[in-house]
Amino acid sequence: MKLLDGKVCAESLVADISSKVAGYVNSGLRKPHMTVILVGEHAPSESYVKSKIKSCSSAGFESELLRFPEAVTEQELLSRIAMINADPATDGVIVQLPLPKHINPQHVINAISPDKDIDGFHPTNFGRMTLGQKAFRPATAYGICKLLQFYEIPVKAKHCVVIGRSNIVGKPISIMLSNDFEIGNATVTLTHIETPRQLLLDETRRADIIVVAVGIPGFVTEDMVKDGVVMIDVGINRLENGKIVGDVDFEAVSRKCSWITPVPGGVGRMTVAALMINTLMAYQNNFNLA
Ligand code: NAP
User: Fold this and answer.
1) Residue 163 and residue 235: Cα distance in Å, rounded?
2) Which of 123, 180, 186, 257 measures 20 to 30 Å from 41, CA to CA?
3) CATH, residue 64
4) 136 neighbors 144 (Cβ within 8 angstroms)
5) How far away, in angstroms, is 149 Cα from ligand 1 center?
6) Integer Cα distance of 52 and 177 in angstroms
7) Residues 158 and 239 grouped into a single domain
8) Residues framing ligand 1 (Cβ under 6 A)
9) CA torsion through residues 215, 216, 218, 220, sign
10) 73 and 151 share a domain?
11) What's the pLDDT tens digit per position in 192-241?
12) What is the DSSP letter of 40?
């Protein structure tokens, strides 16, 4: 078994970005700029935002964290997003999810300009990505593709099973792996909570690559996979003892895998790296750079 090390891959991608940015800045351009919106106090969100801001600094970007109280109204948030959309000094904006219950996340996502939507959640970007057009691709799914590419894992013509159909992970990765993309052209089965247990087992047991994003610790067990499988564990679950684990029973399942992502240090790091790639693309679009 070998580790698909998200830390190593992310650091390499961010180093590439940083050298490109240094070139742009040396030629007289300003630095790329990311704005992060954080609403309320939610410990995991604080930690995700912190790692995004830290990665901006490693990539040579400027970043700005806008904090709003839990009680902020949807309208106040939408007004601020409209201001950011109109501000030429900001290349990309993300709104850290989840939002408080009184705010509809889809209203917020739809309010972000598709040109600054570095999370790739806006319907315009999601639609373009689905059609195989140039788009900001949803960051976690894009990060998984970059990780597979970095470790030269063959994807074309492989049988992939995706477990979970969320709009931010399961759905986009199933589309990206099946599209005629550089990392794609796989035959993909998307499973979800209504997938009968026996059908799920039949699919996972013959899968070459499994991507799991359900948010249930130890969901994928040893009996569900074949020898040599490539296992991508998206889950980030905080146990009562404070330990962070994925959706895979790592100790038992890893013995059968050819490759597996660790948690932490796998897909989470790649999500942040993909955000940096998307921000650089937004910046390059702004300045008509190749
Ligand atoms: P989500 O929105 O809660 O979606 C979970 C999905 O799993 C749903 O589609 C659900 O099906 C499906 N599901 C639940 N039980 C299932 C079962 N028994 N069999 C098959 N499918 C089942 O989750 P998410 O936002 O995608 O996140 C999933 C996990 O990934 C969480 O632990 C989250 O923290 C983590 N995450 C990590 C990153 C990262 O950067 N590493 C990024 C995002 C999320 P239904 O649609 O039918 O309900």
Assistant:
1) 11
2) 123
3) 3.40.50.10860
4) no
5) 23
6) 25
7) yes
8) 140, 163-166, 168-170, 191-195, 213-215, 234-237, 267-268, 271
9) negative
10) no
11) 999 999 999 999 999 999 999 999 999 999 999 999 999 999 999 999 99
12) S
